[in-house]
Amino acid sequence: MALVTAGRLRRRPRGAGRVPPLVLAFVLIPLLAEGFWVFWPAVQGFYLSLTKWDGISPPQFIGLANYREMLHDSVFHTAVLDTVLWLALFGGLSAVLGLGAALLLQQERRGVGFYRAALFLPVVFSLTATALVWQAMYQPDGLIDKAMSGVGLGSLTHPWLADQSTALYAVIVPALWRQIGYVMVLYLAGLKGIDPALYEAAKVDGATRWQQFRHITVPQLRSVNAVVLSVIVIDSLRSFDVVWALTRGGPYHSSELLSTYMYSTAFQSLRLGYGSALAVVIFVLAFGVIASYLVRAFREAD
Amino acid sequence: MNTLTSTPSTPGSRRQFLAGAGAIGAAALMSGCVTSSSSSGGGSSSNGGGTVTLQSNLSSPQAKSAMQDLVAAFNKRGKVKAGLNTVASETFRTQLPTYLTSANPPDLLTWYPGSVADTYARKNLLLDVSDIWTRPELSGYSDALKKLCTSSAGHKVFVPASYYWWGVFYKKSNFAKWGVQEPTTWDEFLALCETIKGKGVHPIGLGAGGGTAWVASAWFDYLNIRVNGAQYHRDLLAGRHRFDDPEVHKVFDTWSQALPYFDPNGTALAFQDATTALLNNRTGMMLIGTFFADAAPKDQLGDLDFFRFPIIDPKVPAAEEGPTDGYFASARTHRADEVKELMSWLATAEAQEIYLKGSSGTALPTNPQAKDAGTPLVKKGRALIEGAADVTQFFNRDSSDALQPTADTALTKFLARPKEVTSILTTWQRDAQKIWSQ
């Protein structure tokens, strides 16, 4: 679908002259490199998803059996539901809270740089290292349980990561803690790009703060939204490190995402064919969401 | 794909381009390049000067320096030189198939004998070292070890170096304070748990959380070899019985009797933290292998003792878990003679004593002439394994590394929801079936 619009955008008369060889080289050499390092392994991944492979013997072609297995695989169903939940909670909350933080911190005031830096700091840390710190906090008798007992909520203390009803949410928190800073920076850049004259004009017309936000800020941030959405969808679907470091998808698959299920199927159970099929599903989901959004965005741009 | 197809300027060239791309893709698929790619990556062996590469997964500081001492001692002997390449254990585990299928593989690798090694031997990935087993260095090894290191095709493919044991560990000072004795039968064990619970302490620590869920498999292994016997256990793990059989149900019924005495944080703490809980008197006992001593302060080790996992059915011969560690060589090594030289030296009493001196010292040497650390704990452990009717390895070693995650899921779920045991076992069987049918 993106192809159609891309074609339409390019429809402009071209000179009949030949393309200079240098330009051709600039196009072809990166294309070759990309083809070898990106598209070629991707094609291999698609092929592997149609096989049964243990990583040692030659893969056996089994057609669509891996995809048929998914239909009846309850762990796959859990992983899909958890991924949707993750996308909604992690994606939704990081977008809302990131925008909120950006709005709060956009005015140049004393000390605002400190707060921006503080919110952005988690992005700099490795997520695996972050997860280890959070794991210590979530432990029985860890910081969180101690703090809760301290304020009289001792009855709510909990093995947060070992209980199937709280594990997924306990993992989302550290992931959000990091993502909010990232989304905030994207929105801050977007807010900086809005012409202040628009707000002045609105004030002259007597617009309230809410009306300014609703009718100036939101429409003006449309291009940033496209970036934020892509970032969030991609980050949600590839969220792996924090889940793996904290729960490995457990206890008994209750915090399993498609990405962790793919990893454990491929590299722990050594079912690389089924693991590749899961990877293809992840790819289709990510590509589907992003492509449909881009198509809409381009249409509106026309 | 999107970028690819929109690049060419005219429809004609686009079509040609697509056809070309399709042809290249199809040709590559036909020729099976997908599989050949696996043999080009990962081989981290050095080719310089005919040095034998020893790829080791012993990455904890003590074990790593013990391995360095070992290789240095070998290199002092002259002729053949060896180089050590230590890889983080988790990376090693996932990369092992790549190491073995590589065209230029590491020559010698640390791993486990028995079923795990046989999986690779059946695919002709391991060097046949039957000839070094006839050398004097290995002549004194027990028949049990000989059997363990033999592949199903009848070749010796492994050289063992050390083993350790599992037991129910406790603090001597606590047992004295509570006025209790080591139990020998399951009923005595349950009565002991009741007494300890009465003192306000969680009787049984576990340590199956925080990335070490596999520790729970020790309970399954021991209950199964006590209730159904070691041979049934091995057959079950090899796929010759089913996890939803009545025999396995009986294992979980027995386990249920002890469940009220387990530490409620058993699946939330890693075994290192569970060790701390035992040492800090928050739990009374813990079924664990001697490797836990690495995580314990040295001055506390003297207060620790262990007893054999209680007997459940006196008619079943008492087998013990005695996991063996050692080395196998890649069948594709370019230096077979040098590798065998190193392997037979690693089997000597001299080499094994060098390793034990450098490591935490709770492991036992496989060479009958080699001296162990000599502490009362190690002596008791050695007697336990030497007196056992049969020796099993551990869940993943008696089956395969791929089957371990299915056990982790089933056992963690059982510990949280013991009432759902029937559906848990049905799921376990289905998951295991997928691994066995690989």
UniProtKB/TrEMBL annotation, chain A:
Domain (ABC transmembrane type-1) ranges: 80-295
Pfam families referenced in this protein's UniProt entry, alphabetically: BPD_transp_1
Name recorded for this polypeptide: Sugar ABC transporter permease
Keywords: Cell membrane, Membrane, Transmembrane, Transmembrane helix, Transport
Transmembrane segments: 21-40, 84-105, 117-138, 167-189, 272-295
Record-linked InterPro entries: ABC_transporter_permease, MetI-like, MetI-like_sf
Membrane topology according to the record: Multi-pass membrane protein
Intracellular or extracellular location(s): Cell membrane
The family this protein is said to belong to: Belongs to the binding-protein-dependent transport system permease family.
TrEMBL record, chain B:
InterPro entries: Bact_solute-bd_prot1, SBP, TAT_signal, TAT_signal_bac_arc
Pfam family, one: SBP_bac_1
PROSITE patterns: TAT (PS51318)
Chain intervals for the UniProt region annotation (Disordered): 38-59
Biased composition (Gly residues): 40-51
Record's protein name: Carbohydrate ABC transporter substrate-binding protein
Provenance organism: Actinacidiphila acididurans
